[in-house]
Design brief:
2 domains; four-stranded antiparallel β-sheet; single chain; about 30% strand; Rieske Iron-sulfur Protein; alpha+beta
């Protein structure tokens, strides 16, 4: 093959240039990657459906959670940590206990009425779950709370 006198015209790429990427090659890879990621994002719920609760769940009795206190539980499945906080005499709130940044567990700080994620210094409001500071991209998922006959129930959203 290299004995042929015109081998350089058959293989015009120099060895020093073989790692260079042309604009066309770059665009093909970039567009293909964007399509693959975008398509995957669109069908992720079909492939990996998020668990949804269909029945209310009894969490505790009202007298079991003092004002300023909290109770940990699992919701919507036993693999999803959640937290119920008692903000006032008749005020309860329930949230996912997983930080929306990297899923670290959040801790409740009653004196500041906020949740704190120790992994990357994320803070969330205990009133509505919105991000107060840090890297979390969105609010904590909130679960509807219902008081029935002195019992605290979490309802499906």
């Amino acid at each position: 093959m290299f004995d042929h006198p015109d081998w350089k015209s058959t293989f015009p790429v120099r060895q020093s240039d073989e790692h260079d990427v042309s604009r066309r090659q770059f665009c093909k890879v970039a567009c293909g990657s964007a399509l693959a990621v975008g398509g995957g994002w669109l069908v992720k719920d079909k492939i990996f459906p998020q668990p949804k609760a269909t029945e209310p769940k009894l969490i505790a009795r009202v007298e079991d959670v003092p004002v300023g206190g909290y109770k940990l539980f699992a919701y919507p499945t036993e693999h999803h940590p959640a937290i119920l906080v008692r903000l006032g005499e008749n005020e309860f709130a329930a949230y996912s206990q997983s930080c929306t940044h990297l899923m670290c567990p959040v801790n409740y700080q009653h004196e500041k009425r906020q949740f704190y994620c120790p992994c990357h210094e994320g803070f969330f409001s205990a009133e509505d779950g919105h991000v107060l500071a840090g890297p979390p991209p969105r609010a904590l998922p909130r679960y509807p709370v219902e008081i029935r006959d002195g019992e605290i129930w979490i309802r499906p959203a």
